[in-house]
Each structure stands twice: as structure tokens, then as C-alpha cells.
Amino acid sequence: FRSWGGEDIDLGYRLHRDGVRFVLDRSASSIHYPHAKSSAHNFAQARANYRYLAQKYDTPITRLAARLGGAVNAYTFNDAITIHGLPGCAEYLREQPAGTQQPVARRPAASQ
Q: What does the pLDDT read at residue 28?
């Protein structure tokens, strides 16, 4: 990623796709460094990154993320997946015929 937005979704998606089980631990803590993220420029970058994720993985869930453009948080995104009746990542990948999964898309080098 060369800009703000979506890198956490990419990591979470790859972990989920590879079978990692997520568990809520309310006693856990973290530090999030505050940064401005309400500018139109930041949202445009995030939308571009979500489109990149959709192209990179080409699954129903990543295509939904691109359509929503990061406009929802992780909790409501899970609801959207359920409402749309989308298969889980592992289920979707199992259903694909061998050799038909899209190769991982690569972004062109950034212009200077």
C-alpha cells in the first residue's frame, strides 16, 4: 500500500482466508496513533485501496468492500456479508475449480 486506508483490512482478510480464528478479548488493549482521516483526499485513497483489494483477491467479500468503499466499520461490514448471503472466504475458495483462481494483482510502480 502506498497510501492511507485498507491495509488493516488486507491483513485481516488474509488471516481470515487462511483460517485464523478471531476472538474478542475485551481485556486486551492497544494504542492507536491519532491521525487526521476525514479529508476527501484520504477517503479517495482508501476507496482506491479497496478497489485494489477487490482486484487482488477477486472474491465476493472483497468486491463488496470495494462497493462500500470503506464506508462501514468492521462490525457493520460483517452484517453486510450476512445480509448479502456471501460465502466465507474458505468456502468460496473451495468452490472454485482448480486453476481458475485469479493470480494476485500487482500495482504498477508509483510514478515519481
A: 92
